[in-house]
Amino acid sequence: MTGSVAAAPLAELAAPGGPLERLVSTGLRAAGTGGVWSAGDAGGVRGRGHAGVLGRGPHGTRPMDHDTVFDLASLTKIVALWPCAGALRQAGRLPLDRPLGAYWPPAAGRPVGAVTARQLLTHTAGLPLRTRFAERYGTDPAAIRAGVLAAPLHRPPGGAVEYTDRAAVLLGHLVESLAGAPLDELAARQVWRPLGMADTRYGPLGPELAGRTAPTEYERTAGRVLCGVVHDPSARLLGGVSGNAGAFSTARDLERFLAAVLAGGDGGAGGEGDDAAAASALPWAGSWITESLRVQTGGLAPARGLSWLCAAGTDPAEGTFVHYGFTGTALWVSRRRGRWALLLTNKVHYDRDFRRLTELRNAFRRAVFG
Questions:
Q1: Which of 6, 41, 242, 264 has the most crowded CB, counting CB atoms within 10 A?
Q2: What does R_g of the chain's alpha carbons equal in angstroms?
């Protein structure tokens, strides 16, 4: 799709009682969930709002706000795995286009040995599409990682864009191996602490954070609604720390992260003062951000950057990128527009009918980015 309409100024869109607040409040009611939203640029937040409560039953007395903790689901790929992979790339330790088997011993002689890190980041590696870890490999994390390494490819690498959590699980294993530390420690050291993301971490969460966490679904084995324990079953099997899911965060923390993404690319994006300087000093700033927020999949569809997806309904050349989380979360960023946005919900707490939430997400993207 080409010829998108230019978005209105952020100050006008995001003003209290303005177009974004009305759009999101109405859309959340139609989707049947509460949520929070923010929009801004490299200098920080230009507007935000919230609607609804954390959930049903005992969770129905606390309103959503920007300190509500959300299970990020697949946004973990963006706020944990992607920058940690970038830090290795910037340090010259993660070759994007060499087959894994040529430099990573666990992949040598395995089907995944022919795959590259770039293909993992763009979901073009040809890995099996389903996880089904417990069914195929049991419940031991070491056995699951071994099973992912040994699994036959679904198709030859580079032939199609097919989203699969296996890519992030495998890349997370690779990043941990090359860096010599668990992913939760790497993310805290290289991303969350430097940006002051004080409420962002892998679970399970302690009582203080769990008390302001939006619950997800009822889990039959646990016999309760999950709250502060990762919703994604694959990440749970891997101990809660995985490249594909497992991280929790707040809108307030993610605002810092997205502003840093805009400010930290080659040449920056109009950041201001100390925050912009801090973003540029991150070990994954600079060329990694710039490269990631470009189409990396050639003529294959859907077009993707590195970890990020070109937003549906936009021309990939416009450079509006998005990532979604199954629980109901979403992040957008556009270096060309100089804007970012987030919309966080816990839709799965209520049901898995995502049609109205998808409509809201698309309308929200159009309003912020054109």
A1: 242
A2: 19
